[in-house]
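Please fill in the sequence for the structure shown.

STRUCTURE ENCODING:
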């Protein structure tokens, strides 16, 4: 099975980019000449939310350079480009310059050690940066990884790079519970686990890697879109999208209400060789236990997964965690420092919440309190009794050099900036002097 998938999916994507030199594809934007308040976004006292760009396209993950250049990755091409560099040249709080390059769609983008890393749906590329962290040659990225599995669902290849030049890539499952087609029976063992439902590790400085030269770093993860490297623990943290569809084949064990409430969306701290348990188990947020999946003999009560890792935090079902960021700045109040921000771009029906940015406080490298809603109402409508369509879906998160938080929207392509304007506590430095 492994050799078959590798053979089927080894392929290189054509590469192209706008010409350099005078950069004719650098375009002015239609943004107003001053920052627009995102008045509908609810943030804690002392914080403000503004809109810095609009109509960017389906904007997924985001990376910000040390000079404030913003790089965003698009899941669909806009004007033939999948990456845009955004600049606020006159420092008025809105983007007034856009430069597109890269002719492949995708999700992942990351800056580390003088390179911009970006993923397509089948591989990973990197671009050399100059001392200002500007891409030197957008025409000629180096392809690091090729031939990764891609199907018609959950295509994103989210990426992160650690401090030892290791590259981590999410490869999602394309089957919600690894069921045999048209049945409620699970495939045993699940054949997807040789090439999907895992985090794969590659070298961040070696070209033309494939499954054969990579390492399956951690398995049993249905789909990870949000992930980040925690510099305090020197470990990888990920947010897993949970499975669904309990009630359809197993009404004797699950009511429709239970199916809507299960399983939890989960955060894991990963180490090499870890197994999070998908598809054989799931985490029940009510029982606070790992439960054996019904496809594999479970009844909603039997526990399982004795040899699998436990989540470090759990969230309501079906919220869709797409972004994870550990806050390392000092511009925000003390409680936020080294904690985790999470962008949820889905909705949890039982709590009538969704389309929000949450926060989890951390202490000594572990969650140290309950999660809370940090920024809300991106939906722009009542989720219990909607009065109109969803307006924005938070997806990517990034911290800027001044310590503010940027949030992408993969529905309408709006870019938000959340800044702290309240009294300074616990820091001797003004926000403007904070380094990323």
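FILLED IN BY: designer on duty
SEQUENCE:
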């Amino acid at each position: 099975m492994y050799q078959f998938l590798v053979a089927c999916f080894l392929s290189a994507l054509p590469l192209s980019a706008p010409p350099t030199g005078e950069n004719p594809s650098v375009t002015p934007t239609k943004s107003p000449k001053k920052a627009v308040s995102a008045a509908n976004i609810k943030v804690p006292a002392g914080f403000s939310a503004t809109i810095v760009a609009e109509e960017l396209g389906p904007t997924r993950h985001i990376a910000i350079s040390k000079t404030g250049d913003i790089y965003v990755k698009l899941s669909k091409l806009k004007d033939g480009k999948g990456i845009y560099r955004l600049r606020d040249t006159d420092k008025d709080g809105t983007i007034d310059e856009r430069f597109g390059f890269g002719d492949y769609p995708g999700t992942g983008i990351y800056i580390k050690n003088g390179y911009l890393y970006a993923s397509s749906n089948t591989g990973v590329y990197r671009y050399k940066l100059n001392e200002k962290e500007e891409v030197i040659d957008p025409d000629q990225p180096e392809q690091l990884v090729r031939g990764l599995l891609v199907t018609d669902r959950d295509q994103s290849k989210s990426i992160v790079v650690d401090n030892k030049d290791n590259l981590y890539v999410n490869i999602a499952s394309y089957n919600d519970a690894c069921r045999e087609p048209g049945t409620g029976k699970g495939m045993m063992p699940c054949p997807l686990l040789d090439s999907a439902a895992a985090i794969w590790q590659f070298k961040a400085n070696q070209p033309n890697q494939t499954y054969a030269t990579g390492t399956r770093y951690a398995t049993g993860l249905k789909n990870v879109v949000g992930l980040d490297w925690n510099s305090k623990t020197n470990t990888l943290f990920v947010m897993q999208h949970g499975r669904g569809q309990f009630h359809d084949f197993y009404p004797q064990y699950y009511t429709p209400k239970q199916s809507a409430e299960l399983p939890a969306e989960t955060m894991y701290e990963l180490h090499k060789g870890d197994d999070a348990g998908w598809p054989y188990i799931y985490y029940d947020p009510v029982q606070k236990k790992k439960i054996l999946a019904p496809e594999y003999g479970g009844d909603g009560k039997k526990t399982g997964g004795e040899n699998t890792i436990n989540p470090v935090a759990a969230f309501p079902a079906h919220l869709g965690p797409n972004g994870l960021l550990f806050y390392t700045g000092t511009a925000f109040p003390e409680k936020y420092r080294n904690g985790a921000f999470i962008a949820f771009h889905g909705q949890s029906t039982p709590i009538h919440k969704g389309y929000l940015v949450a926060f989890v406080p951390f202490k000594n490298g572990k969650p140290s309190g309950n999660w809370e809603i940090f920024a809300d109402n991106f939906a722009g409508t009542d989720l219990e009794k909607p009065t109109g369509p969803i307006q924005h879906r938070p997806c990517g998160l990034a911290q800027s050099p001044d310590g503010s938080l940027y949030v992408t929207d993969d529905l309408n392509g709006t870019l938000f900036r959340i800044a702290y304007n309240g009294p300074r506590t616990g820091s001797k430095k003004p926000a403007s002097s904070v380094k990323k």
